[in-house]
Amino acid sequence: MYPEGYYFNADQPSESAKVNLEEIMASLKSLSRQMESVLTPDGSQKSPAPSCRDLKICHPEFKSGEYWIDPNQGCKMDAIKVHCNMESGETCVSSNPSNIPRKNWWASQDGHSKKHVWFGDSMDGGFHFSYGYNGVSEDIVETQLAFLRIRSTQASQNITYYCKNSIAYMDYENGNVKKALRLMSTADMELKAEGNRKFTYNVLEDGCTNHTGEWGKTIFEYRTRKTVHLPIVDIAPFDIGGKDQEFGVDIGPVCFL
């Protein structure tokens, strides 16, 4: 029984109804923010984009720099940090480490190598190139790279070879490229100076054409529409083995578009 003088208004919500309504509104706002994050990611670790191209489409005002992407669109805990070129939309994943120190890496019995020698496979202290920032496992990076290749239509990468008495591409004395460097792709395909155009690199600068006793550099570039061919995971110089022959390498980021 209601107390005397109490009038019940059927249109008046109860206290429990008010509480439920507030909870529903809060849930809707939270869901709206989550949907907004999925539909228009901002490239943060909490809201990674599928790729830099997607981020550029959502936020054309963003500047080039470091952002987070999640190409496999699974749990965002496996998102990776990349460099986004917001002018082109390229997604660039850095190598780790990004260079091979300059020194004498290979000594042959006769003082000169007679074949290409793979840095990661054969040289003492050598290693295969890996990618991604510190703190992220290689397995996660490999998985994300696989999905990034699927999302992309082209890929590119530069390798800079520093030389001291070591031919990198053109042998000026002999007038040929028989001593030119070879590159190994992640698909176990050799990229060479000549041959099938699908598997030949370009040379942007060649400062390692003869033995001068001074340091020089040669810049290699490989561009392809077969995104499975990149990144590069190893290099094989030919003109090494002497005590006065040294080399080092800058491993450029692999970029997808």
From TrEMBL:
UniProt keyword list: Calcium, Disulfide bond, Metal-binding, Repeat, Secreted
Compartmental location: Secreted
Record's keyword annotation contains Electron transport: no
A Pfam family per the record: COLFI
Gene3D superfamilies: 2.60.120.1000
One annotated Gene Ontology cellular component of this protein: extracellular region
Domain named Fibrillar collagen NC1: residues: 22-257
Keyword DNA repair listed: no
Molecular function terms, GO-annotated: extracellular matrix structural constituent; metal ion binding
The name this protein goes by in its record: Fibrillar collagen NC1 domain-containing protein
Organism, as annotated: Kangiella spongicola
